[in-house]
Amino acid sequence: MTYAGLAALVLVLCLAVAVGAVVAESRAHRRPAHLVAVVVATAAVLTVLTVVFDSAMAAADLFRYDERALLGPRLGLAPVEDLAWPLATALLLPSVLTLLDARSAGRASGRPRTAGTAAARPAWRAGVRQVVGSSRPLSWINTAYPFAVAYLLAGGRVDALLVVGTVYFLVPYNLLMYGLNDVWDHASDLANPRKGGIEGVVLDTRWHRTTVVAAVASNVPFLVAVVALTLASDRTSGPAALVALTVSVAAVVAYSAPRLRFKERPGLDSVTSATHFVGPAVVGVCLAGGAWTWPVVATVLAFVAWGCASHAFGAVQDVRADRSAGIASVATVLGARTTVRLSAAAYAVAAALLVTTGRPASLAAAVPLAYLASVWPFRDVSDDECEAAHRGWRRFLWLNLVAGFAITQGLIVVALGG
User: Fold this and answer.
1) Reduced to 3 states, what is the DSSP secondary structure of residue 177?
2) Chain segment 117-160, per-residue pLDDT in tens
3) Helix ranges (DSSP H) in 171-237
4) What's the CATH number for 293-418?
5) Chain region(s) in the chain for CATH 1.20.120.1780
6) What's the pTM?
7) Alpha-carbon distance 346 to 331, whole Å?
8) Cβ contact 98:27 at 8 Å
9) Torsion region of 156: left, alpha or beta (phi above 0 gives left; psi -120 to 50 gives alpha)
């Protein structure tokens, strides 16, 4: 199947879901104008972003399109085929939420909701805020970026696997990871004063089923597409890529799932959390058929050390709350002071590993050192004062964006210099 053919198929399927949502709204005697407005506005924003960033990356020669696989027309330097994915996202997500909201309302009342109810639209908007909020939009880039960069640097080109994989790790993957966590951790979230902002919503129980359905429904099509595209390719690393993808998705579920609850198994909690972010990068390298040279291995190991360090430091601020709730973590076992110092050591290990990769990759060693500097002021924090580490954690969230920007600029400079 060609890139354009795959894009057309996905658009047709998403359009069918959107039509179903419009029909559902009409049958409930509600005007679908709001749904249409949301779809149009979302499509406009995502399309502009796609054109701008695709054009910028192509201009920097970070990748090159296979001209034989393209239809020809472009917006900027972005081929028209790339626009299928923001349009598909804009069609699918609001439509799925509309259908789920209509179904939930029907179950609750025993009949379709009547026209003009004051709660109809506010309930729809509340559902969107809750479901989207549970996916941690601020963290979307933390999983999509590693996949896309690893895929391109390992020799991949702009193709269906890159686009589908990046969109998958951008939103559906995060909805599965954080949405299920918010459902299964609802009781502890209610008692956590940090919840309710950029660090995660407190998911209302009425939206639990909706969130689970949305997470599964958004993941399955993308996973099927990635598997199909991988099997259709002639890359010998295809099986390894599917294994890496399976491990990544399994780690996401096992972290929060009842009985498994890897998040409550000290040591394993930090390793599993690191897998959530390193997994997409490993999938990217495998899908691109990249060679596992020492620079690649060292970079992946550095990423693992960074992930473990970040998770461990994040657990410090909750030591007292977790102990009182009977929740185990690496920080409740080791204590706040020891965990912060272990986290700082892991950041140092990440920097040391990057130094061994040779230039220009070794320059990235400055990134984990910046995280080390950020957590170091809390090296003597006691268990009784563990909440003070929250200041460092909020700084960590914004440091992620700064670090991502710095790495991106470095990649562009290297590409232009080549």
Assistant:
1) helix
2) 444 445 666 777 788 878 888 788 889 989 998 998 888 887 88
3) 172-174, 180-184, 186-190, 208-232
4) 1.20.120.1780
5) 293-418
6) 0.70
7) 14
8) no
9) beta
Question: 396, 317 in Cβ contact below 8 A?
Answer: no
Alpha helices in 114-207 (DSSP H): 120-134, 141-153, 160-170, 172-174, 180-184, 186-190
Give the count of beta carbons closer than 10 Å to the beta carbon of residue 312: 27
Task: Count each helix (H run) and each strand (E run) in the chain, helices first.
Answer: 18, 2
Hey, what are 231's tokens? 């099997």
Question: What is the C-alpha to C-alpha distance for residues 15 and 12, in angstroms, rounded to an integer?
Answer: 5
Confidence at residue 70, expressed as pLDDT on a 0 to 100 scale:
67
One-letter identity of residue 86: P
Return the structure tokens found at 50. 């796609």
Mark the ranges of the chain whose per-residue pLDDT is less than 70: 1-3, 6, 29, 57-58, 60-71, 97, 99-125, 187-201, 405-406, 408-418
CB burial of residue 107 (10 Å; 0-12, 13-18, 19+)? exposed
CA–CA distance, 271 with 348 (Å, rounded to integer): 17
CA distances from 265 to 194, 317, 373 (A): 22, 17, 28
